[in-house]
Amino acid sequence: MRYILMIALTCLLACGDKIIPTENSPVEEVEVFDLEWSTRTSPSKEVIGTDNTQQYNDWVLVGGDIGDPPTLKAFNKLTGDLDWEYIHDGILNDEIDNSVICDGIYIGICSSGIIAIDLSIRDVVWEIDFDNNNYSRSKGFTVYESKLYQKVSKNFGSTNISFHLLEVDINTGAFTEFLSFGNNGTELMGISPPVIFKDNTQREVAIFNIYPAIELPQESIQNIMAIDLNTKDVIWKTENFTNNFASNGGHPPILYNNIVITGGDWHMYAFDVSTGGQLWNTEISDDSPFSIFTKTNHLIHNDRLYVNENGRNVTCLNPATGDIIWNNPLGGPNCTDNMIYYEKEDFLVFTSWGYGSVMVLDALTGETVHREDEYDNSQYNTDVVYDDELDMFFTSTYKHAIGFKINGQ
After folding, report:
1. Mind listing the pLDDT tens digit for each residue in 231-277?
2. What residues form DSSP beta bridges with 307?
3. How far apart are CA 134 and CA 112, in angstroms?
4. pTM for this one?
5. DSSP 291-334
6. Which residues, in sequence order, are bridge partners of residue 256?
7. What does the pLDDT average to over 175-197?
8. Which of 121, 216, 287, 308 has the fewest CB atoms nearer than 10 Å to its CB?
């Protein structure tokens, strides 16, 4: 139990202590941010619950406020008008705080379960009740083909706790405990979501981080393991490539050519995807006293790797060698899931939850091009998404859905 409590405290402090940065170096402003529209999501509330903005067809999709039942609001991309709204009346009764869209089905992740909304009929098609199955949701999921892989624990709060990766059929909601780690008296494991792919023999392979039992985060161990997705046989496994501050538990490792890359103990690590042999590791500066790479997914674009730890550093590396190309020490403390590469201008665009701002960085040099602070006394707090046909970006503050464009310098 000390393991669970320490990890929960670590993640809380790592994100929570960045709401108001201790330093706020001036940024030379370039007028690149054009607000197209803003719409209050609720006339009476102002704490949006979901971490993810999504887009589908003509709509920007935003979850309801904290304390709402599972709610989905669809705003018109061009005007910001609320075109329709779905409020769930079923087994699950807490807000959606993470989401993904697969084949026209909006998958909403709640603390108490998972809900699937068919966007063509704007109605629920299935839901999974975690409480009824004695599950506690853990952050992190992967989508592969028609399956959702969601992390959960079972019997949380007891000595019989176990960790599972659920495999959920996106079309039907049927699920199984695809992969399980239990407490056998000597080893208690946490897992990250997997990255899943077909190798050169067309074998389906899943690679994920695993975390044996620990007493304190500074003594935590991190391994990475590859398994055959169909037989579950272990293909390879590393032996304790970190021995302190294990991290990168909320997102899967990422692939670059024949390299699998993950973060841990203030480093980035790369392994041969076929053998698990370590290829390189690079220390990444961080101003957080706790584990890194817990919230924001790594981004590969045009043979460059972009990473953002819990602290304010944003770093660009060569994914083949691990060499640092640039580092922006005040690029933006982040606790949102994703960064976007805006190819039209070679910009990185993302919401810095710690600054409460939308950040625009030069992806080639790392220079901060623009920082868009709060709107109407409300901070930006969710992922940015991009529509390439409209050349528009969408996000939200704590009380608004937002549509904006970015102009070059």
Report:
1. 999 999 998 888 777 888 888 999 999 999 999 888 899 999 999 99
2. 315
3. 10
4. 0.88
5. -SSSSSPPEEETTEEEEE-SSS-EEEE-TTT--EEEEETTS---
6. 259
7. 79
8. 121
